[in-house]
Write a structure and sequence with these properties.
The chain is mostly helical. It is built from 24 helices and three strands. A hairpin with a 2-residue loop joins β1 and β2. It is globular and about 70 Å long.
Length: about 500
């Protein structure tokens, strides 16, 4: 580790010195324009931008379907809202813990992962996150493709006569998403600021329709729960974990966004209420609308595309456009950044962010979104529950590394050094790999031991705790840790 100053701290932001940046940029296998740490000028996102980003991402079809599926499971309205709120609050805690690292050091997720998995081992958590994001990319593309198909069917009567018309609409929408995503993260931020108010208006219009059609809140909120006692709890617990898993992906790669924050205060104020409140409110909209479909049509239409096609053509067109905008926003906002960065990190010299976006789109097709959305049980329990177990251990390791092992101190330049202190053994941290296996094993125990089924039902939480505790214990004697004195020696307190 260099004895001279390599980084400068201004307020709660740390950047590389010009000399250290020049030195690090020579390592082409570790550095490119997207993976480098932000400059002080690039820390430009205020709290409002984070709030609009979360509103845009929460007002999406998967959120609507998540809440609506709980009505289909047999919950009443307040049980479903409480489930959404509980899960959102828990996962926001994890998101804020990881956000701090991105803001302080201006690094994207794949570089942050080098800290705990090693300079080469970082590909493991980065690609794991990429696979999940690609799955979500496919899910939102499928929603958007359905909406586009519904619009075309009303506007062009002959459309339904075309073979594979839904597949063609899906392919068109998928292509639109990829093209927009290729424009990069700053374009993603601008899209969120535009779409958030539009999506909010669309949600309010749908809410007003439900109230008018059902004759007010009374008939909707009076619907009793269909599950009680032990049966309710066996649905509630995994449903909360499903909500947590819904945003567990962002709990890992949130540094991709918070790296642009003007300060820790800005990212904290912009995130702490915007996601949980928006999730709860929009889930309530989804619940009211789904309850209205039960009263009007005799069945819970938890897929909103199935609902909008029952309206006159002008409404189908307008609602379809809102759904398309929603799907594009969540796709380019939450589901492209991490995998594009992960693919880019594999070969920084040759793979650009745009190429990574294309690779994400191709991978999403292999995830078969049409199957994931075939039933609410496949959506909530199979998809959300399974990947929640996988990501929980990564979340626990990331939190333990930054807060418990390193105590928010790191050598920024060393993250770009192939043989530096974060290279561990051949670029892989074996302690992180072992902690990952421990986290997974804790949750998987519940799959094989009937009396411990709660470990699997709460997979994300127990996987996180297992990975967190194991990593914190294993890393106590690691030479990659730097003391306060060492940190002060390489860090200038302010720009001179």
């Amino acid at each position: 580790m260099a004895d001279s100053v390599t980084q400068v701290q201004t307020g709660d932001i740390v950047v590389l010195t010009p000399a250290a940046e020049q030195q690090a940029s020579r390592n082409e296998s570790m550095w490119n324009a997207d993976l480098r740490p932000c400059t002080l000028a690039e820390h430009s996102w205020p709290a409002s931008k984070f709030a609009s980003l979360w509103v845009g991402m929460c007002l999406c079809l998967p959120t609507y379907s998540l809440a609506a599926s709980m009505i289909a499971l047999g919950m009443n309205w307040w049980e479903a809202v409480l489930t959404i709120l509980c899960g959102s609050i828990v996962v926001m805690g994890a998101i804020l813990l990881v956000s701090h690292a991105g803001t302080k050091f201006g690094i994207p997720y794949p570089v942050f992962a080098r800290l705990w998995f090693g300079t080469r081992g970082a590909h493991v958590p980065a690609l794991a996150r990429a696979v999940i994001a690609a799955g979500w990319f496919g899910i939102n593309s499928w929603f958007g493709g359905q909406a586009l198909d519904a619009i075309l069917a009303r506007v062009v009567p002959a459309w339904l006569g075309i073979g594979w018309h839904l597949g063609i609409a899906f392919a068109l929408f998928w292509g639109i998403n990829v093209l927009i995503a290729m424009r990069g993260p700053q374009a993603i931020g601008r899209l969120a600021q535009f779409s958030a108010p539009t999506l909010a208006l669309g949600a309010l219009a749908l809410f007003a329709w439900a109230l008018h059609s059902a004759g007010g809140f009374g008939p909707l909120l009076a619907m009793p729960a269909k599950i009680h006692g032990p049966v309710f709890w066996t649905s509630f617990f995994p449903s909360v974990v499903g909500v947590i898993a819904f945003w567990a992906t962002l709990a890992l790669n949130i540094p991709d966004y918070t790296r642009y924050a003007t300060s820790q205060r800005a990212q904290l104020r912009g995130q702490i209420f915007s996601m949980p409140v928006t999730m709860a409110l929009f889930s309530f909209v989804g619940i009211v609308v789904t309850s209205a479909t039960v009263a009007l049509f005799g069945t819970a239409l938890w897929n909103p595309v199935q609902l909008i096609v029952k309206f006159p053509t002008p409404v189908v067109v307008i609602a379809g456009i809102v759904i398309i905008l929603s799907s594009v926003t969540i796709n380019v906002g939450a589901n492209v950044m991490a995998p594009a960065r992960a693919f880019e990190n594999l070969w920084p010299k040759y793979i650009t962010f745009g190429m990574g976006a294309i690779m994400t789109g191709l991978l999403s097709l292999a995830m078969q979104p049409w199957y994931v959305l075939s039933t609410f049980s496949a959506y909530v329990f199979t998809w959300l529950g399974t990947y929640g177990v996988m990501l929980g251990a990564f979340d626990g390791i990331a939190i333990a590394d930054y807060w418990l092992v390193r105590k928010r101190r790191l050598d920024l330049a060393q993250l770009y050094a192939p043989s530096g202190i974060y290279a561990y053994r051949g670029g892989l941290n074996p302690h992180a790999l072992l902690a990952l296996l421990v986290g997974w094993a804790v949750a998987l125990t519940g799959w094989f031991v009937p009396g411990l089924r709660f470990l699997w039902s709460g997979g994300w939480l127990f996987s996180l705790l297992g990975g967190l505790v194991a990593y914190a214990l294993l890393m106590q004697g690691s030479r990659s840790r730097i003391s306060q004195e060492q940190y002060d020696a390489i860090t200038a307190p302010e720009v001179t």
